[in-house]
Design a protein that fits this description.
elongated; 19 helices; 4-stranded antiparallel beta sheet; BirA Bifunctional Protein, domain 2; 4 domains; single chain; alpha+beta; 9-stranded mixed beta sheet
């Protein structure tokens, strides 16, 4: 059974049991700052599970795209994924344990539906604790359906309990369904032990309690059911595959990758792991970029996760010998696989391909420099008895080359090393403190933060400054700036609020010169020579006698201490996010690059 067939059968089954199909939600949660992505099928339905009336009624069914990044470092084995699809059905105060379990059993075992041999099914239920008794009711229903007691396992809260969305609220036990894969397993193997013998396919959550502020539980009058079945894992079992990567949602991606690297999957485990990582990450990146509320790579929130996934995939592509951008070729395959259930991917095809290509181009330059520097340091690091990369070394790779610490950690693991993450975090905190200092406090033409994104933003201020002079007049002069990895802030002399047309014009000029990919060059000369050459000096009386003059093609020429990109094409898309007053006669612009 394919993923498309499973998706259709699931919806059909529950529609025949009086459920209404609802649309899956965006990967970007609405009004929920606690998570970056939709992490489960129930996530968008939390308000209705908490008591709101759903417009479609009290029996619902859908399929939902989900992302979980907590196990991102484990991706590369045979089962962990960052993106996955979840099938779910809900009862909002309607049926409860008995009917939910009976429907689950019917769908799993009936020849009309999945046709799984009941002898291969094992069950877990909540064993109870001091606060809540054991869930003997669920166990009893399973027994009545023919599941013997020896295949019904009582497990603790960590395995079979769904907690409230917050500190208080609806919660309850769950019952999970496992399939015996036929793998021998370890001595004493049981469902819930990750030894490959038992694979979980479905989870029925029974919200029958309310956790009160004092930590005690009371029975709810309105009880709900929330279930979830993972598509990728289930089809792997139904197809008799040992891995989700052997199913049709991955094999076309892997086949395209095999074509690009001219090597077969299965040749050696190290290469296979890289292939799995790339396949997972490009699938996830495609869905993020192609989401209804799609985000782009950036240094914050969802954009940071997206950038991390893309860059990790690119690094593993280099391990396989791919030196040019390649993710777009794989993303095209992903769109083709999912064009029927997710037509929005087809609509956003060009955005997906363009953003992947742009991010790959940016990172390939960073990656090459960072890997070369890591290779230089590696011999000395391998001689250290504690086999630890000091935090300040990892930070220098980040600070100087824009090399993500997660990739440094991954390189370290490949050589039997570890990164002193605490030391890195301390160095990073100090770096953040410095980056927040206004340049006007002790500016002498330089910038403390030399990371890739800050470098791009800093170069963009040169283009912004000249564009403001072009649009508003030569009276415009910089009065200060503050640049962090997230955004630039630029203060300049001008008395009037900029019109929306002027803002759009400035933004357009900057992006035009970015697209021209102008070279950025530097010359060293005296301050007097710099002024005579026509260079703009922002803080003339505070420069040293010998200064650097940066030219951006034939467009901009300024006295500055750096850092800068080598050409404007590296900057990315420039966007003004705000224009406001800073002080008397001074305006302030905030902007980002993507």
């Amino acid at each position: 059974m394919t993923a498309d067939e499973l998706r259709r059968k699931y919806i059909q089954f529950f529609e025949e049991h009086d459920h209404v199909q609802i649309s899956g939600a965006s990967l970007i949660p609405e009004n929920d700052p606690t998570v970056l992505f939709t992490t489960a099928g129930m996530h968008p339905l939390v308000p209705y599970l908490l008591g709101q009336e759903h417009p479609a009624g009290n029996r619902l069914v859908d399929y939902q795209k989900c992302i979980r990044t907590g196990d991102i470092d484990d991706v590369g084995d045979f089962s962990h994924l960052t993106f996955f699809e979840m099938l779910g059905n809900w009862s909002l105060g309607d049926y409860f344990k008995e009917e939910a379990i009976k429907m689950s059993y019917e769908f799993l075992t009936s020849p009309r539906w999945l046709g799984i041999d009941p002898e291969k099914i094992s069950i877990t239920v909540f064993e109870g604790d001091e606060e809540v008794p054991p869930d003997r009711e669920s166990a009893g229903v399973w027994e009545s359906l023919g599941i013997p007691r020896e295949r019904i396992h009582y497990l603790p809260r960590s395995d079979n309990w769904w907690g409230p969305a917050g500190a208080t609220g609806p919660c309850g036990p769950d019952t999970e369904m496992f399939i015996d894969t036929g793998v021998p397993g370890t001595p004493g193997s049981r469902p819930g032990v990750s030894d490959g013998k038992y694979m979980e396919v479905w989870n029925d959550v029974f919200m029958e309690y309310n956790k009160k502020a004092d930590g005690t539980y009371e029975k709810l009058q309105r009880k709900c059911v929330d279930t979830g079945m993972g598509i990728e894992r289930t089809i792997a079992i139904l197809q008799g595959k040992n891995s989700v990567y052997e199913t049709e949602v991955f094999t076309p991606i892997i086949a395209k990758l095999e074509e690009l690297i001219e090597r077969r999957y299965g040749a050696d485990e190290d290469s296979d792991r890289s292939i799995r990582i790339i396949s997972d990450h490009v699938r996830t990146a495609t869905f993020i970029l192609g989401d209804e509320k799609g985000v782009k790579p950036s240094n914050v929130q969802q954009g940071y996760i997206l950038r991390r996934l893309i860059r990790r995939a690119v690094r593993h592509g280099r391990k396989l010998g791919l030196s040019d951008p390649f993710l777009g070729h794989l993303a095209a395959v992903v769109v083709e696989i999912y064009r029927e259930p997710y037509p929005v991917l087809v609509e956003k095809y060009n955005i997906i391909i363009d953003e992947l290509h742009a991010e790959e181009e940016r990172f390939l330059k960073t990656l090459q420099k960072g890997e070369q520097e890591f290779a230089k340091k590696l011999p000395d690091l391998l001689e250290k008895q504690d086999r630890t990369i000091p935090g300040e070394v990892a930070f220098r790779l980040y600070d100087t080359y824009g090399f993500p610490v997660e990739i440094t950690e991954e390189l370290a693991r490949e050589h039997g090393l570890v990164v002193d993450r605490e030391g890195f975090d301390k160095a990073f905190e100090e770096h953040q403190r410095r980056s927040k200092m206004d340049e006007t406090s002790s500016f002498k033409g330089g910038l403390a933060d030399h990371t890739e994104l800050t470098t791009r933003l800093h170069t963009a201020t040169h283009l912004l400054h000249q564009a403001l002079r072009d649009v508003l007049g030569d009276h415009v002069a910089q009065k200060g700036s503050n640049i962090t990895p997230q955004r630039l802030r630029f203060d300049f002399v001008h008395s009037d609020k900029m019109t929306s047309e002027q803002i759009e014009q400035v933004e357009g000029i900057v992006n035009e010169h970015i697209q021209r990919d102008l070279p950025v060059t530097v010359e060293t000369m005296t301050f007097g020579e710099a002024r005579e050459s026509g260079a703009i000096a922002l803080f003339g009386d505070r420069y040293d006698e010998i200064v650097k003059v940066y030219s951006i093609g034939d467009y901009s020429r300024e006295v500055c201490g750096g850092p800068h990109v080598s050409s404007t094409g590296e900057i990315g898309e420039f966007k003004i996010t705000k224009e406001q007053s800073s002080s008397q006669g001074v305006r302030r612009i905030r902007a980002v690059v993507k």
